[in-house]
Amino acid sequence: MTQLIDRTTRGVYIIAATPFAEDGALDLDSLDRLVDFYAETGVTGLTILGMMGEADKLTPEERRAVIDRVMSRAGALPVVVGVSDAGIGNLTDLGRHAMDRGAAGLMVAPSRGPAREDRVEGYFHAVAAALGADVPLVFQDFPLTTGVPVSPALIRRLSNDLPQMVMLKHEDWPGLTKITALRAQESAASVPRLSILCGNGGLYLPQELARGADGAMTGFAYPEALVQTVALHHAGRTDAAEDLFDAYLPILRHEQQPGWGLALRKHILMRRGAIASAATRAPGPRLTTTDVAELERLMARTERRLAERG
């Protein structure tokens, strides 16, 4: 399977949900259907065991089971695996398992702790040394969740010092100026390019693309919206990209509610036939009948707007 090695990766790497049965058990049959669903929407690749994939609620054995099942189903579709962990030993064990199964690369977020850049820098050097120079790394920059803000200067320094750090998953918020700063640094011939894919549900995707991002690495229950927006932008049709994106914006925004977004996303995926149950693993939100009626009204409005667009 293709690895992320050349720092030019672009497109959409969808953050995959992790399906559960109503009793909380891992639903591997739905995971097969979900991989097929994502592939049919035209995504460039998958990212599994991310924060919205409920990785922190899985046992070590379940994480490996998810990796094995996705890798056996994905075929030639590249798969990035989230391996963030409080312990570097645990991170390395899971990362090596993923790479042995054919992963394209590993996504790692800064460990929680004091927001000191020397600590973050030391941590990523230790992670890179433990995994080895042959393992492509994706730096997940998500300070709203980790509590660890990271400057463009540190990201660039790590990218320069660690050749295997080939991609930034950009989820700072607000963070458009960070993309601009990183791209400006690359005007110097001595500075290697860094692939940048953006998160936050794609909420700012048109603006991020305009700032120089290469695409998206995020979750949304309508992956085709992200795929088509990125493709239109890359084709130079920026207004068409924004017009298409605008058709999905109300439901995309609704899905971004903190704490409830995953439950909403899973309900849409269930209604679209991608998974059997919308269950999140405890402790997780459950939608009320009012929540469901509201969401399904938004789904119907989205479908009408798309039909009107032809």
Automatic annotation (TrEMBL):
InterPro entries membership: Aldolase_TIM, DapA-like
Name listed for the protein in its UniProt record: Dihydrodipicolinate synthase family protein
Highest taxon of source: Bacteria
Keyword Protease assigned: no
Short name of any one Pfam family annotated for the protein: DHDPS
Gene3D superfamilies, per the entry: Aldolase class I (3.20.20.70)
Keyword match Lyase: yes
SMART domains: DHDPS (SM01130)
Family: Belongs to the DapA family.
Keyword set, alphabetical order: Lyase
